[in-house]
Amino acid sequence: MSNFALRLPDHVMSQAKSAADEDNVSVNQLLVALIAEGLGHRRGLQERGLQEKGLQEKGLQDMRTRASRADVAAALAILDHAPDVPAEPGDALRSGS
Q1: What is the domain range of residue 53?
Q2: Could you tell me if residue 5 is inside a domain?
Q3: Can you list the positions of beta strands (E) in the chain?
């Protein structure tokens, strides 16, 4: 086990002492548990970030693959049959878009 001198602002130490008293543990035990929990949370966020990035890249590749098979003329023919009506409230493009 390692030792590390940690400087805490007075208000943080006060909160830590109160929380440790409430949990019936030492301030050291409380801080070790909170740090470990925070590091685990951080690691999970990083792993999810990498996973989400991989999913986004796969999704983009899937869209590119589908787009490469698209029949643009057929899509435009379908859109030719769409009515020319004003957008529903909330669906209009913002100016500059």
Answers
A1: 19-80
A2: no
A3: none
